[in-house]
Amino acid sequence: MPADQHPVLVFDVNETLSDLTPLRGRFEDVGAPAHLLPTWFAGVLRDGFALTAAGAYADFTSVAQEGVRTLLAGLEGWTGDGEAAARHILDGFAQLSVHPDVPDSVRKLSDAGYRLTALTNGSVALAERLLDTAGVLDRFEALSDVGGPRCWKPAPAAYHYAVERAGVRPGQALLVAVHPWDIDGARRAGLGGAWLRRGASVYPRTMTPPSVSAQDLKELAEVLVGDQ
């Protein structure tokens, strides 16, 4: 898939580029089991999606903090400070790193002529810190979050906002994401979709299939660029 077919790559950030695993320790710090991380994060996405579907909007931090407070309040035997616990867990996002395959793969895609952008349901500030720490911020020409269109992905307006900022049509952009719902949303909005499996083996048949799939970003770069 040469760069002239999809000259712009739009990267999702949370879990696609960043590794959320260290947040498990943040849950343990506040006296909650580490295994609550995926339950909490799925709930954050659910609530953000629900607000968007209802025509409303709240930013990621607000939704995520409420998610922590609600989850811990229902945890049997937990008697801590919900507000403080939420702050501690959310502060962990500023300490996250990218997956090991990200830096070299980003450079390879950039060197091959792809224009790199990012679109997150989180915040531009955290995405910027993440990419700067990884040494690849300079390879991205634009970082966008859903505060611009005031709707969360997978709403079509979110993807259209990102491609409009890049000055291209939806069909000239390829979303790179680990979440099938994100790929489906991008495809329905007219973009291509590159699914990073990152250990997953099944893509839901109810969702629009990806244009291309790969185990991780290293493999995707090999597919898009070749072995050079």
UniProtKB/TrEMBL annotation:
SUPFAM superfamilies for the chain: HAD-like (SSF56784)
InterPro entries (alphabetical): 2-HAD, HAD-like_sf, HAD-SF_hydro_IA, HAD_sf, PGP-like_dom2, S-2-haloacid_dehalogenase
UniProt KW keywords: Hydrolase
Keyword set includes Disulfide bond: no
Sequence similarity: Belongs to the HAD-like hydrolase superfamily. S-2-haloalkanoic acid dehalogenase family.
The protein, known as: Haloacid dehalogenase type II
